[in-house]
Design brief:
heterodimer; A: 247 residues; alpha+beta; 6-stranded mixed beta sheet; B: 355 residues; Nuclear Transport Factor 2, Chain: A; 32% helix; globular
Chain lengths: 247, 355
């Protein structure tokens, strides 16, 4: 366990272990939103209700990058990893993205039929050497994002090999990875990304993933942890589709 | 003139605390309001959350016209009755202001585009059906022209299909029932809708847009006009990649959520794939500067023939009309977040031969 250094880390423990839900009145804006692989919760009161429903758990912070946390949660013998990303507004949390590999399946919410393609405007062209990154993406994280783009979108699995990656690309042959955000803290880089792809069930699978990496003296990056919600992956294969075509 | 604080960076207690003296000229407005953002947020709280419906009489013009996708509502009496009906169905509705995008108009008037996230429990019969007991969340945008403490004209868009889906109803079924009632009442295509569709269809054609898209920070209005004309009227969908952040988040009717260039391009493709002769007019643009960027509000109208099955089922060949408001959050010259709201139940009702 690491020493709690950020207010976010302290909040995680206060909410999970000590049920200090009243803190949300000071830590979140009234229009906060929380997104995970199952739903988007809008509003501080709704986020609070979600915390209450989760109940008390044991938790430990495993990495604290200020605006991004890695943690483990325990309930009896069951233990799982999670990452939390926050965006603040004048110090209060405005938006949270949470990825937990809890392994508990729920029914996925009905979704509209998918729209559009995954590789926008690329046609038959292969993946380029550099990732398309949003404005404000930290310079220090760009080499890592570009390398992972080559490995994941370019399928250069010699650059990055992992069972989860093989599983995803096997299940979703057109899996496309999008890099959304990065946080850099000393020698560590956290990456928030999404992967979309089409499954044989006919469903478009949309997953949020998060990774933690450490820069090595050789100028490379070592992958410390990837968190993907595998239960959400499975649940999406059977999710109901919204149908406007007939009464 | 003092800076006008928006919703961002302030918690609700701070927003609703007395704001002190006037921050901008507001001739004829109540002394309790310090600026137009305060007016919009505070009167919404007083009327809807404090249930002071009588204040509608002092905050809406007697001859107000509220434009919606089911037709205009004329007169303050209709506003009060509609508010009472909605609160009967959703008594604990809270209205969280996400942003108020505003601009000063002539003679002390203001225009505002107020995006609201509502949370509410459906405890009474609603226009969608009998009470379900379900707690739901939905988005509304109210565009208001405000003068001398009164809303003189309003354009109201609400995500009814998201409400219907969250309550467990099928939007198409609701629309079919409403359209059948329209037909049984002998109502033809409503005059207001014919006029609205003709206005859009007959709007002036623009030259093929060949240059670059205007900078959204420098000229938000020119950006909005160019973007919709280029993408919808001229079908230049590739402009999505020039206008949006590659990791843009998009929320639309039916609480659809899209991410990135490919899916957002897919939305415009499907819209045109549903209404092959679609034409769009941008009816209003407003922008305010926010943390690190701009918030832009665009109200638009689309008219087209339902001749494709991309979004709304088998082609009906019905002419259709959409009244929508889009809010963009623009960062670093690109759209990073979008919320577009229109009433898909009303659109499906048109497709089913109603309205």
């Amino acid at each position: 366990m690491i020493q709690l250094t950020s207010d976010l880390a302290e909040l995680e423990i206060a909410l999970r272990c000590h049920l200090e839900y009243a803190r949300l009145a000071d830590t979140h804006t009234q229009r906060s939103s929380l997104e995970d692989n199952w739903e988007v919760v809008k509003g501080r009161e709704q986020i609070l209700a979600r915390w209450v429903a989760q109940g008390r758990k044991e938790a430990a912070i495993t990495a604290d990058l200020g605006e991004m946390l890695a943690f483990t949660v325990s309930e009896g013998e069951h233990r799982w990893p999670g990452h939390r990303w926050v965006t603040r507004e004048h110090g209060r949390i405005l938006r949270e993205t949470v990825i937990e590999d809890r392994g508990v399946e729920r029914e996925a919410q009905a979704e509209h039929p998918p729209l559009g393609e995954l590789r926008a405007g690329k046609g038959q062209l292969p993946a380029s050497d550099t990732a398309i990154l949003p404005a404000g993406f930290p310079e220090a994280a760009r080499p890592l994002a570009n390398r992972l783009h080559c490995a994941w979108n370019g399928r250069a699995f010699d650059l990055f090999s992992a069972d989860w990656l093989t599983s995803i690309v096997t299940a979703l042959p057109d899996a496309t990875f999008y890099f959304e955000r990065a946080v850099v803290a000393e020698d560590r880089v956290a990456l928030l990304w999404r992967v979309f792809g089409h499954h044989a069930s006919g469903r478009r699978i949309r997953l949020i993933g998060s990774g933690l990496f450490t820069a090595t003296p050789a100028g490379e990056f070592r992958c410390d942890e990837i968190v993907l919600d595998q239960a959400a992956f499975r649940a999406q294969m059977n999710k109901p589709m919204i149908d406007y075509s007939k009464p | 003139m003092a800076a006008i604080p928006n919703v961002g960076g302030r918690d609700i207690a701070e927003i609703l605390a007395p704001q002190g003296s006037r921050r901008q000229p507001m001739p004829g407005f109540g002394e309790e309001y310090s600026d137009i953002v305060d007016y919009i947020l505070r009167c919404t709280h007083r009327i809807w959350e404090q249930k002071d419906l009588g204040l509608i009489a002092t905050h809406y013009a007697p001859d107000i016209r509220v434009h919606t996708m089911t037709g205009p509502v004329d007169g303050v009496g209709g506003v009060i009755a509609g508010t009472a009906r909605t609160l009967s169905a959703f008594p604990d509705r809270t209205l969280t202001g996400e942003v108020v995008i505003w601009s000063a108009q002539s003679e002390g008037a203001y225009f505002s585009s107020h995006r609201i996230t509502s949370a509410a429990t459906n405890l009474g019969p609603s226009e969608l059906g009998p009470p379900t007991g379900k707690r739901i969340s939905f988005t509304t945008i109210a565009d208001c022209l405000c003068r001398e403490n009164r809303i003189a004209e309003e354009w109201l868009v609400r995500d009814y299909s998201a409400m219907a889906l969250a309550l467990g109803y099928r939007p198409r079924t609701l629309a079919a029932t409403q359209a059948a009632a329209d037909r049984a009442a002998g109502k033809g295509r409503a005059k207001w809708r014919v006029e609205a569709m003709n206005r859009v269809a007959d709007s002036a054609r623009t030259p093929f847009p060949g240059g670059s898209i205007p900078d959204p920070h420098r000229d938000p209005s020119a950006f909005a006009l160019d973007f919709f004309d280029r993408v919808v009227n001229h079908r230049r969908l590739a402009a999505v990649r020039d206008s949006y952040c590659p990791a843009a988040h998009w929320t639309g009717p039916g609480a659809r959520r899209l991410f990135g260039w490919g899916e957002i391009t897919g939305w415009f493709t499907a819209l045109i794939g549903s209404f092959g002769d679609a034409r769009i007019t941008v009816d209003s643009t407003t922008a305010v500067e926010g943390p690190g960027g701009h918030d832009i509000a665009v109200r638009w109208s689309l008219a087209g023939t339902h001749d494709g099955s991309a979004l709304y089922g088998a082609p009906s060949q019905e002419r259709a009309y959409i009244l929508a408001v889009t809010h963009w959050r623009v960062l670093g010259g690109r759209i990073a977040e979008e919320t577009t709201v229109f009433d898909e139940v009303a659109l499906l009702r048109q497709i089913e031969g109603g309205l």
